[in-house]
């Protein structure tokens, strides 16, 4: 009984701190307080290599469409392991987790992100997507992270992260990238090889191959670059 009492007493400062943090969030947020009604992100309390975030742990200022409203000048990041959008006030270190079902879009720099389950349902697995091409057809890139054990450092190249690497740490976040083509009629197709996108343009296949081949002189496009070139050629003539 005494041990339980001691545990409960030890939690009081933590609860008080959480309440203070939430109050600061609400005070700073003002009209954007809807963004700060989620859960405080507790991060990851273990050592790891790579990063669970889309690209890096750094938050960047952007625009978010959330629950029917647009919010500009918000510090944003995407946790690609937990499939969550995080927002962080300017004066705070901790971030808040948003309800991903209410996220309509993100604009971070020149990059636009969406939560495809809102539009395409189960056709695309759980996770956020970057919109690489947005015309009559769309090209989406999905980045997800998985946690793996790699104490010997053999999977470093799979992390897709240029940050500092620590040898001897067992955990590593591995980056997985998938590409999806969405036709003008809304058909969703995962692109696994370059020829998959050509199936949607059978009557122009020869011209497309000739065009991409001319652009690839001295280099080789990966799947995402190839699909983007195809759509730019078909829809924009370039």
Structure description:
The chain is of the alpha+beta class. Helices cover 26% and strands 30% of the residues. The protein has five helices and eleven strands. It has helices at residues 2-29, 117-120, 195-198, 205-215, 223-236, and strands at residues 39-40, 60-66, 69-79, 84-88, 96-97, 103-108, 111-114, 129-134, 138-149, 171-182, 188-191. It has an eleven-stranded antiparallel sheet. Strand 6 (103-108) and strand 7 (111-114) form a beta hairpin. It is globular. Residues 1-22 have low confidence and may be disordered.
Tally of DSSP β-strands: 11
Largest sheet: 11 strands, antiparallel
How would you spell out the order of helices and strands? Answer: HEEEEEEEHEEEEHHH
Number of helices: 5
Q: How big a fraction of the residues is strand? A: 25-35%
Whole-number average pLDDT?
86
Report Rg.
22 Å
């Amino acid at each position: 009984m005494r041990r339980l009492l001691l545990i409960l007493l030890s939690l009081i400062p933590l609860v008080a701190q959480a309440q203070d943090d939430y109050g600061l969030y609400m005070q700073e947020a003002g009209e954007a307080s809807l963004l700060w009604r989620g859960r405080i992100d507790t991060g990851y309390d273990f050592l790891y290599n790579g990063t669970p975030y889309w690209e890096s742990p750094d938050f960047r200022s952007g625009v978010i469409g959330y629950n029917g409203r647009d919010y500009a000048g918000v510090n944003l990041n995407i946790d690609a392991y937990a499939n969550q959008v995080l927002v962080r006030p300017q004066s705070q270190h901790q971030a808040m987790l948003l309800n991903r079902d209410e996220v309509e879009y993100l604009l971070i720099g020149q990059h636009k992100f969406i939560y495809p389950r809102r539009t395409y349902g189960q056709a695309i697995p759980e996770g956020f997507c970057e919109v690489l091409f947005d015309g009559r057809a769309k090209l989406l890139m999905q980045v997800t992270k998985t946690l793996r054990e790699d104490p010997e450092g053999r999977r470093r190249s799979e992390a897709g992260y240029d940050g500092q690497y620590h040898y001897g740490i067992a955990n590593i976040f591995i980056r997985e990238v998938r590409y999806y083509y969405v036709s003008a009629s809304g058909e969703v197709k995962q692109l696994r090889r370059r020829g998959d996108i050509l199936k949607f343009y059978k009557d122009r296949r020869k011209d497309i191959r000739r065009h991409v081949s001319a652009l690839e002189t001295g280099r080789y496009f990966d799947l995402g670059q190839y699909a983007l070139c195809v759509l730019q050629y078909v829809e924009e003539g370039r």
